[in-house]
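Annotated sample (chain length 127).
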Amino acid sequence: MDIVVPVGRVLFASMFVLAGMNHFVSHAEVTRDARSKGVPAAGVMIALTGLMLLAGGWSVLLGYRVDIGGWILVAFLVPTSFVMHAFWQETDPARMEIERAHFLKNLSMTGAALLLTHFGSGPYGIG
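Output written by the structure step:
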């Protein structure tokens, strides 16, 4: 059963690594979305959050300094949840439900990242 924790770590972290790469590959589109939500200096913030996603994601994926990587992901997830997925501000019921789902998903991932900061990488981590 030692394999369960590293497999979970990889599955959890993969989304952050892919999202971080997307911040750079689709920079204009992601920046436009952030700007529409009122993010100041959206282009700079997207680059910064892309780096956060990559650093935190790779840290967790590899099991290297998962305490720091987990905190980086928490620092990304909390403000992103409230700024980019503020479902309570939506007037369209369908859009509200989509944003609520993203908000709750982010809160769930924040909980997982907090657990990683406390319990570490588990077996097969590199540091």
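Annotation: The chain is about 80% helix and 0% strand.
Annotation: The mean pLDDT is 95.
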